Each structure stands twice: as structure tokens, then as C-alpha cells.
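3-dehydroquinate dehydratase, Marinicella sediminis. C-alpha cells?
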Amino acid sequence: MREIAVINGPNLNLLGVREPEVYGTESLQDINDKMSHLADELGVSLRFRQSNAEHELVEYIHQCYADQVSGIVINPAAFTHTSVALRDALLATEIPFIEVHLSNIHARESFRSQSWLSDVAIGTITGMGSKGYLMALRYWQD
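C-alpha cells:
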């Protein structure tokens, strides 16, 4: 069975409360629950991590490599636009990943359209709300 890591960056622990007009009303736990249900249907194992600290996410990516995780679904949140460290960790471990964003980062402030990860990702899903996570997960179905 494939194991996929679902990684969420800063402030996503506040989903459902934080700017619902942009990010929706679902909590991160709601999204994780939907993903777990779909993973069961697809025959995929999931592990979840959210952190507001960049170094914790880098260390987690390293742990995913050590544990031979098959792939990553990542919403780097604000780190999308700033984190060369996350990019380097993903490149160094060579774990295939899909970048997901709840909102359409290209239709927002201009600084949000720059991603340090998109060009090295298998693909990106942006602006589809929580459905984007489910779409990304389907990539790894058995």
C-alpha cells in the first residue's frame, strides 16, 4: 500500500476561522477526514502534518524520505512564496509531490503568484478549495 504524506504550512490550522471568504468554512480536520475516507477507497495510507514552523516541515520531509513515503501532497501556504528551504528539502529527497492551494494564488495579490515549488512539482492544483486535496490524492490511487 502506498503511503502519502499530507503536509500543511503556516496558519492552515486556522482553517474554518481564518478568512472564510477566501479559504472556506471547512477546518483542516474536516479536510483530513475527507482525505482519509477517500484514501480508504483508493487503497492509500495517509499521514498528516501541519506546522507553522518552516524547520519542522523541512525535518518532516526528511523523515518522509527515511520512511520511504511514496509521495507528498503539500499546501505550503505562505511558505510557497518564501521557502527555498522547503524547495531544497523536496529536491534533495526526490519525493514526488503535488502542490495544492485552496484559493487561486494567481488571482490574488501579485506576490502570491510566485511559487518556489511549482516548477519542481508533479503538478499544482489551485483555487479548487478542499477538492484540490482530493484531486491530488487520486493521483496516487492503486
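The first helix runs from residue 20 to 23.
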